[in-house]
TrEMBL record:
One of its GO terms (molecular function) is hydrolase activity, acting on carbon-nitrogen (but not peptide) bonds. It comes from the Eukaryota. It comes from Nicotiana tabacum. This is Amidohydrolase YtcJ isoform X2. Residues 91-572 form the Amidohydrolase domain. PANTHER family: IMIDAZOLONEPROPIONASE, PROTEIN LONG AFTER FAR-RED 3.
Length: 585
């Protein structure tokens, strides 16, 4: 009888402990499976003695976690985690350091970013003379007749004057040149490049683009949005080897910043070929996956005009190609950018009263592609920066979703930078993801006031807090190489909103708290691309992607947001360390 009651009591205790654990399951079948197996599983790695922010509301903080087979086995206190350790289990003692989930950059152009790292870098150039000098030095190392490529320039930081071919013609007489503006919606060609492309005063502006001309009607060398397609086909495509090297450079750079997953919109810009992302998929990503060269997880979006090809691919292979590669959806453009005066607004630009911006695509065509993509089950993402562009896309999304077919669509708007009164609430009401890039506001704060007027700019620009308050899903990213991949900097930007040279915040009412900013780079970013079953939080069953930060004070981190990435782990393995000599774990 005593044996019976002892056995029964033990069974009751196990049941009660299991019930007590249920709030941690987060309604994911994987979590339950891993928790059931945890009593018999052995951890490969236990992470202890830290402040672990999980991005999981069921257990926001823990001091330890166990990892097995690249996934999280258990999260909690040390006494529960140490039970999973055996002789061969490794231990990572955090010594009080903060750990957060691996960051998810919701908007990058990954291979273009890697390519740009090997080209002329004009980011931060703040005078005409320095601009010209950079080109003069770079062309000296380029074979005569070869293209000189680069980008990252921002005319706003040298006073606003737009560059012209005449600036650089004298230092590049034998080399065609193409230099993309930082936002990718405008580029500068020298006269030799214009000649090779057949661009003269006789060319008309293409639909959705513009050739900038001087008072005599001659092209200055600047091309906006779809006008760039007049030059881009003449530029030799990067070789397969160059693009593969670009992926490796980009991945290493991302890992240094704590980024373990990116949503990649590829080599697709207004005026570029829709084939480029597909070429990179087959030549670069497939190669890297099969050869063991993938270092970060990639969620791929493809040009919307190729939607049927993506449907065919998904029907054959599914959405998850491996632990590294995920097929996301399709992307299109509604307008250009603020810096290029091509973002589409309800009111004209304050510094160009005849200009409302550019609608870079035919709306009927965009609606038909969106409807077909959505009907086929693809996630749809559309670039919209100006307030009118955002309203047009929200209207279109509402129309597409009015077929009464209730489905988890997670429509996305990329950037959502400037919103008209009343538009903010529509994101939450329509369950549209606002995929935004905090660091863009550092570049736009001064120019927005000039281009839109102070009152209009402050009323509707970068409304992060308002979007969250109205129940919108917020996903953070960088738009690299437009801005650098740097989640910790972006998190600080979203919390402080102090542009360079400013002493106070720009629109302080829109500042976020640390939790909201971290979630926008982790669990919300994962949800925004349908990867929340795999990554985004440090929860049982998900991949063990996490970042060790340099600080051990959560209070200081939440206040000042000063921290560096000390180490990045992907699938429980150290992928980056600030101390490369440290070979443990």
């Amino acid at each position: 009888m005593n044996t019976f009651w002892v056995t029964l009591s033990a069974s009751v205790i196990v049941v009660l402990l299991s019930i007590a654990s249920l709030p941690l399951l987060n309604n994911n079948a994987n979590y339950l499976k891993y928790l059931r197996r945890s009593s018999s599983e052995v951890a490969d790695l236990v992470v202890t003695n830290g402040t672990i922010y999980t991005s999981d509301d069921s257990l926001p903080f823990a001091d330890s976690m166990a990892i097995s087979n690249s996934r999280i086995l258990r999260v909690g206190n040390y006494s529960s985690i140490k039970k999973l350790a055996r002789t061969l289990t490794k231990e990572l003692n955090l010594h009080g350091k903060i750990v957060v989930p691996g960051f998810i950059d919701s908007h990058v152009h990954f291979i273009p970013g890697g390519l740009q790292m090997a080209r002329v870098e004009l980011r931060g150039v703040n005078t005409k003379d320095l601009f010209v000098e950079k080109i003069r030095k770079a062309v000296a190392n380029v074979k005569e007749g070869s293209w000189l490529l680069g980008g990252g320039w921002n005319n706003d930081i040298w006073g606003g004057d737009l560059p012209m071919a005449a600036w650089i013609d004298s230092v590049t007489p034998h080399n065609p040149v193409w230099l993309a503006r930082m936002d990718g919606h405008m580029g500068l060609a020298n006269t030799l490049a214009l000649t090779l492309a057949g661009i003269s005063r006789n060319n008309e502006n293409p639909n959705g683009g513009a050739i900038i001309r001087n008072n005599d009607g001659e092209p200055t060398g600047l091309l906006i949005d779809s006008a760039m397609k007049l030059v881009l086909p003449h530029i030799p495509e990067a070789s397969v080897d160059e693009r593969r090297e670009a992926l490796l450079r980009a991945s290493s750079h991302a890992l240094k910043r704590g980024v373990t997953t990116v949503v990649d919109f590829g080599r697709y810009f207004p005026g570029s070929s829709p084939e480029y992302p597909w070429d990179d998929f087959s030549d670069v990503y497939r190669w890297a996956d099969l050869s063991g060269n993938m270092m970060t997880r990639i969620c791929l979006f493809f040009p919307m005009e190729t939607w049927s090809r993506l449907v065919d691919l998904m029907s054959k292979s599914g959405r998850v190609l491996s632990q590294w590669i995920y097929l996301g959806g399709v992307k299109a453009f509604a307008d250009g950018s603020l810096g290029s005066n091509s973002a589409f607004f309800h009111e004209p630009y304050a510094d160009d009263l005849n200009n409302y911006g550019l609608q870079v695509v035919d709306l009927d065509s965009l609606y038909n592609m969106t409807f077909s993509s959505d009907k086929s089950g693809l996630q749809v993402s559309i670039h919209a920066i100006g307030d009118r562009a955002n309203d047009l896309i929200l209207d279109m999304y509402a129309s597409v979703a009015s077929d009464k077919q209730i489905r988890d669509r997670r429509f996305r708007i990329e950037h959502a930078q400037h919103l008209a009164p009343g538009t903010v609430a529509r994101f939450g009401e329509q369950s549209v993801v606002a995929s935004v890039q905090p660091d863009h506001l550092l570049d736009d704060a001064d120019s927005a006031s000039k281009k839109l007027g102070c009152e209009r700019a402050e009323r509707g620009s970068y409304l992060f807090k308002s979007l969250l308050t109205k129940n919108a899903q917020l996903a953070f990213g960088s738009d690299w190489p437009v801005a650098d991949i740097n989640p910790l900097k972006s998190i600080r930007t979203s919390m402080k909103r102090v542009p360079p040279g400013w002493e106070k915040a720009w629109i302080p009412s829109e500042c976020l708290c640390l939790k909201d900013a971290l979630n926008a780079y982790t669990i919300s970013a994962a949800h925004a691309c349908f990867l929340d079953k795999y990554v985004g939080s440090l929860s049982p069953g998900k991949y063990a992607d996490f970042v060790v930060l340099s600080t051990n004070s959560w209070e200081d981190f939440a206040t000042e947001v000063f921290a560096n990435v000390e180490a990045t782990y992907v699938g429980g393995f150290k992928a980056y360390s600030i101390r490369p000599e440290d070979k443990s774990e």
